[in-house]
């Protein structure tokens, strides 16, 4: 095991991070989260980063080669037995080792999938207790292994169920802890009382032990804000991805003799809507030209759902669908790709609001358009890819009509499939996911370092407020009498917070922004950013501080006309001396984030005003600044473009956990921010309006 880890350290990047990705196995079945974590670790390794994938609870099952280590930590059998009896909390380590054998854990996992979440309340609370619970010995073993063999700077937890591990791992390893949010509210919501409320209370209490959270969709990030009771800025969004090998070089040509074919690739269970799709097929086949339509389905069928599945198929046969529905079983990678290449459209009408929807991306990677219910992550994914259409959740006639329309219209189907394939290729491969996760990891380490510096007393700010402005005065000498522009201005912001400052011309807004950007100095007062008081620095150090920590968006985009959009985004790297090897990929990711991945090679003259300002937003983010300053960023845009840029600024700042200060005349723009302040005659106050 130690040799395997050592081998991964042979060729690494100069800026390499040591990352431990903990991945919870799904009892021997294919699991979207397991596939995601394996793809992420593999992509990080290929890029030269030190990433160790550690199986938790049960072994991982992946579609192709696993990059995980061989041993399983926090094994499900040991955790369960230690929960049930104090005897097993003190048994010799060789017995624990025996109970962690992969074969036994796979068997236990298979049996566990047939257990209703309603029966797992006590065990769930036991796991959430972490170092204070009955499985503390398993946590100690995991921490000892990571400390001796991995020495990570970042530890990634697989989901909220393991948040109880965060405190011990953070303290033992002196590492930042990131927790993924992948849809666990479905399980937690099925716990019975009092366990459901107790689990939520415990999780909320443990939130403080986590440096940052990563959600698989913006939809789910917003849901988790309410569940966890935290600020949106603490949750980054990194969408799922598919291996680059999934992406079809050429979209498969449809066989002339193939009947209209709907695909379903997901777990075969009521929650994923398989039963609803079967009912929809009965409606579809009664529509003109759809009499021979068929359904081709694949996915894991658990023991608990087999009787239900048999009943669904019996009712389908008796309802006139005999021979129209084919279930091909659980799918490996090649079987999945073959199925997707054999269908015209994919639909997984999930009955709950799905947090990930990775099967949408898998289908689009092969050029297969999707028809999905308009809830959860599906509207987001379809908006980002342009590869499908939405229907009202639970409306089977509407679903049948949408499927029929798409199956009849070859040109529309081909257009959606092509758009989806191109979007996945350009934005949703494992390499893109790794780049986005590296941004999260670096931001977390930067924030942890700043907090540590502040806590040790070497900076002027507290760990809570990352921007602190106190008692600013700015006076300019004139022949008559001094011109007072700022009067005792104070402002405090936390990471990820945004504020809009409104006021008339001449009120001091731009002067304040120039001081916050270290382009001008105050006459009196202090500014502290991430524990550093910039006006105490020398000229060279101040210039580097400004380039590293502050991003600017101006009313006029100030793009270099001779440079492409991509080159303009890269410009801030030159202020730090040179462009690194992975900077171009980061610039492409930022252009993707602002919706311009297809405009990277265009010159500013070939872009609209709104597009040029989006490039300026991406440029401001290039050096991962702590503070973004925007001076009338929508002043030169029409109403539609202004609204889009305003929303974009707020969302990208929150995702990057950067602070954002926007000064504007626009009441419409200011209303997009929860916190608003008014500048009047050089004084700053809350905007009661």
Assign the CATH class of the largest domain. Alpha Beta
Rg over CA atoms, rounded to whole Å, is 27 Å
C-alpha end-to-end distance: 63 Å
CATH superfamily of the largest domain: Glycogen Phosphorylase B
Helix content: 40-55%
CATH fold node name of the largest domain: Rossmann fold
Number of domains: 3
Please state roughly what percent of the residues sit in beta strands, choosing from under 5%, 5-15%, 15-25%, 25-35%, 35-45% or over 45%: 15-25%
Strand tally, please? 21
> Looking at the chains present, what oligomeric state does this protein adopt?
single chain
Please tell me about this protein's structure.
The chain has three domains: 2-9 and 18-237, Glycogen Phosphorylase B (Rossmann fold); 244-426, Rossmann fold, CATH 3.40.50.2000; 460-686, 3-Layer(aba) Sandwich (Rossmann fold). Helices cover 42% and strands 16% of the residues. The protein has 26 helices and 21 strands. Helix 6 (121-128) runs parallel beside helix 10, helix 12 crosses helix 17 and helix 22 (565-574) packs parallel to helix 24 (609-621). It is globular, with a radius of gyration of 27 Å. The N and C termini lie far apart (63 Å).
Task: Compile the SSE list and pairings.
Blueprint: H1 2-7, E1 18-24, H2 32-46, E2 50-56, H3 76-84, H4 93-99, H5 102-112, H6 121-128, H7 136-150, E3 154-157, H8 166-173, E4 176-181, H9 185-189, H10 195-206, E5 212-215, H11 218-228, E6 235-237, E7 261-265, H12 274-284, E8 294-298, H13 306-321, E9 325-327, H14 333-340, E10 345-346, H15 358-365, E11 370-373, H16 378-385, E12 388-391, H17 396-408, H18 410-427, H19 430-455, E13 467-476, E14 483-493, E15 498-502, H20 509-516, E16 524-529, H21 539-549, E17 550-553, H22 565-574, H23 583-593, H24 609-621, E18 627-631, H25 639-655, E19 659-664, H26 667-670, E20 676-680, E21 683-686
Parallel strand pairs: 1-2, 1-3, 3-4, 4-5, 5-6, 7-8, 7-10, 8-9, 11-12, 15-19, 15-20, 17-18, 18-19
Antiparallel strand pairs: 13-14, 13-16, 20-21
Helix pairs in contact: 2-19, 6-10, 7-8, 12-13, 12-17, 15-18, 22-23, 22-24, 23-24, 24-25
